[in-house]
Design brief:
single chain; about 325 residues; alpha+beta; Transferase(Phosphotransferase), domain 1; 2 domains; five-stranded antiparallel β-sheet; three-stranded antiparallel β-sheet; 11 helices; elongated
């Protein structure tokens, strides 16, 4: 670790601990020296930075991810292409990587609470026009209280356009992704179904279902719900994470519009509209005052003219 800890020192980061390795490179716990802040550092493969088209699309997807503001979405802090390679920096999650929690034969306690929060996060992003399309064991973090934090939004688009780079865990790829076909919010629903099975019974159970096996009877009332999530045809699945939440008994209205923070651009737009409304009211009030003053002046002129005429008429008599 010592030989690579200073690789991005010129960019202000010290790599402290290796956390995971996947098709998108390496994840590290790092420190932003200027603020002595712990961050999550993604070191992309060198080939991604060398491919101008792929890197340009990667930056565009990161920018779309960066505008999202939700407690379940890791906040993007920095990204760039250094002499030592391309990189991405986000806030440091407070939870544990899903890859370090799940095993082949065991899931986790209270999977429903974790899955509810995961649905909340994915649906919030969808409402802002961002699909994930790459949910897997190295993009989801889970805290002890069931809180979820998700990263890597939209990077799957890069793999679709430039197959030589990145890619998601084959276990969690929807059939349409494997075939290079059109993707949608239902693509995320397929992956969410597999993740729920992994959370409940372990990776082996999810792997069997992904290979065409029957959904386990141990899921009880949720069995038909999960079976629909894993349908080969996207149109036959739930259309979104929000619809899936309703099918699982979660109340979308309770969390979808009350508990998550609005995105910065949405807040800015609302503030501009509010200020514009206030400005319109002030203009209307000012116009009303101006009209009132003009009417008063005309009334005074008419009254003065009437008095002058009366005096002149009396003088002539």
């Amino acid at each position: 670790m010592e030989e690579i800890s200073n690789l991005f020192e010129d960019e202000g980061y010290l790599l402290e601990k290796s956390l995971a390795t996947d098709t998108w490179g390496e994840l590290y716990r790092a420190r932003y020296v200027a603020h002595d802040r712990e961050v999550l550092f993604r070191r992309f493969p060198d080939g991604l930075g060398a491919d101008d088209g792929a890197w340009e699309l990667t930056c565009a997807e990161i920018q779309a991810w960066a505008r999202l503001d939700h407690p379940g979405i890791l906040q993007v802090l920095d990204w760039g292409k250094a002499p030592t390679g391309p990189y991405l920096v986000t806030e440091m999650p407070r939870g544990t990587l899903l890859a370090d929690i799940l095993t082949e034969d065991e899931g986790m306690e209270m999977p429903g609470d974790v899955f509810r929060n995961l649905l909340m996060t994915v649906e919030a992003a969808r409402q802002w026009g961002v699909l994930h399309l790459g949910l897997d064991l190295t993009s989801v973090w889970v805290a002890g209280d069931g809180a979820v934090e998700v990263g890597e939004f939209g990077l799957a688009y890069v793999s679709k356009e430039f197959p030589a780079h990145g890619g998601a865990d084959d276990l969690f790829l929807a059939p349409e992704q494997s075939r290079g076909q059109r993707v949608s919010a239902a693509t995320d629903v397929y992956t969410l179904g597999l993740l729920f099975m992994a959370l409940s019974g372990g990776l082996a159970e999810a792997r069997e279902a992904a290979q065409g096996g029957a959904v386990t009877e141990g899921l009880g009332e949720l069995r038909p719900v999960l079976a629909r999530c894993l349908d080969e045809q996207p149109l036959a699945r739930y259309h979104s994470a929000g619809e899936l939440a309703g099918a699982m008994g979660f109340d979308p209205e309770q969390w979808l519009y009350e508990e998550y923070r609005d995105c910065p651009l949405c807040r800015l737009k609302s503030e501009l509209e509010r200020d514009a409304g206030r400005g319109s009211k002030r203009r209307r009030a000012g116009l009303a005052a101006a009209v009132g003053e003009l009417q008063y002046r005309w009334a005074a002129i008419v009254a003065l003219a009437a008095v002058t005429f009366l005096v002149w008429w009396l003088a002539l008599r």
